[in-house]
Design goal:
Blueprint lengths: L2 H33 L1 E10 L5 E7 L2 E6 L12 E6 L8 E2 L2 H41 L4 E11 L11 E8 L6 E5 L8 H7 L1 E7 L2 E7 L10
Helix pairs in contact: 1-2
Length: 224
Amino acid sequence: MNPLRVFFGIFSIVGLICLAITVPLTYRSIMKSRNWEVTTGTITSLSSDGFPTITFNYKGKTYSFRDNERGQNVTTGLEVDVHFPKDKPELGEPKSFIDDWLAPLLLGMFALIFGGIGLGGFAGMLRRSHIKQELVDMGKGRKIKCPATVSLDMSLTVNGRHPYVIIGQQLDKIGSQLREFKSEHIWFDPTDLVEQKKTVDVFVDPEDPTRYWVDISFLPKKVS
C-alpha cells in the first residue's frame, strides 16, 4: 500500500473526527451566548484543594455550585459572572470565554490542520493522476529524454522515512536555464536502476511546461 495514501488517510480521518466534535461544541457555545441568562455571583468559599464555591441569587432564591477549575488570585468575596439556561439556575456555570470557546477553537484548529493536510494531499494525488492520464494515456504530452539523478525529498517524512524522487534535467532552447522535472515519490532507493538507465522519459504539456509527468514505469512494480 502506498505510504502516502495511508498518511493522508489517517490525517483526513483525524481531521473529520475533530470536525464532527467541533460542530456540536460550537453550536452549544453559540446557544449559551445567545440564550443563557447572565447574573453576578460571589465566591463564598474555597475547598482545601483550591476549588471555589460560587453563590448567586435568582428570583429571590440562592443557588450555589462548585467550580471545577482553580484560578489564580481567587479569594472569597470575589464577584464573578455566572450564566445558566433560562429558568434553570440549578445548572449555573461560570461565564468565561475560555470555558465556552477553548475546546471548539482548539478542535477546529486541529480539524483545519489535519483535514487540510489529508484532504489537500489526496487532492494533489488526484491532480497528478489527471495529469498522467492526459499527458501519457491520452497522448497529449510531448515526450523528452532527460539525464536522470536520484534525490531524497527531505520535505516529507512518513514513519521516519524520506521518499526518493527521480529528477530529470533539461536545458531550455537558449541553453541558459536548467529545468528540473521531479517524479512521484518512491519508497525505496532506485539509484542503481537509474544509473543503469541514465535517462528518464518525461511527458510535458506543450502549452504549459509546469505540467509534466516523469515516467518511472521501469521501476519494479511490487517494490514501488
